[in-house]
Amino acid sequence: MAAKVERLVNLTVALLEARQPMTLAEIRRRTRYYTQGDPESSRRMFERDKDDLRRLGVPVETREVAFGDDLGYVIDRGAYELADVDLTAEEVAALSLAVQLTGTEGAHLALAKLAARAPDPAELATSPTTRVSLAPDPVDAVADAVVSRTPLSFPYRTAGGETARRTVDPYAVVQRRGAWYLVGRDHDRDAVRAFRLDRFVGRARDAGPPAAYVVPDGFDPAAHVSGPEVARVDVEVAVRPAARWTVELHGGVDTGRTRDGQPVLRLRGLDPVRDRSWLLGLGDDVEVLAPPELRDAVMTALRELAGQEA
């Protein structure tokens, strides 16, 4: 299930970054997916992924390319990005305080645009205040580097607490037991290594031009972040409409049954430790029905959360 989610995320990133419609051949080169088996099988996999993205609300468009008979694919950013947001003056004031604390230039500009749309005149706080230092989020830089094949340099904290700068050819981003990893060739060690994104301790910067390297054929990023095998389980959940797309994104399939009027979906091969976190995040929009051990664990965690909020 995680492999499909990663594939959909990377396909979305590639199509968003495309300056012009990408053919399937270009998508294969850019993402390293849809190359397994015979061409027809890989095309069918791509068509399924494309349909899944559209069903989830991602506006994947099919267009003719300038040369040749192939079709191109692209995501319309205007249709994909967040719709207009209307805020009250009180909500703008609360956001203004958050912006003053973080002090990011982009946040100031975004807040000014939102404040201009408020129904009542909204003044932005300009008095100096204590700022909270936020660690730069490496996700965007890493995703861009994976797509464009650009080497990255970043300060990294090891499991032992030591910090050193690493220079890496980013091959892929994968998830393992709730943590996201950058997998790529470490220049200093001349070997493939995996780096947890939450251990980046500073800004990731380009360390070379785009298209500076080639990902080896048949490269399997998951093999470089594998740990002890976890006994996976099939899970059944009753889902409210607000959470259905999330469950389907994780591989949920409708069983045709219902529970208290809500459809029951089945997810195969979940990690009962890692996947419990996103199930908990859906709150009462999802009820775990089976297996009993996971249901009990989720119910216990929800009761503990409710007790903390009381």
UniProtKB/TrEMBL annotation:
Residues 232-306 form the WCX domain. InterPro entries: CBASS_pafABC_assoc_protein, WCX_dom, WYL_dom. Residues 140-200 form the WYL domain. This is Protein PafB.
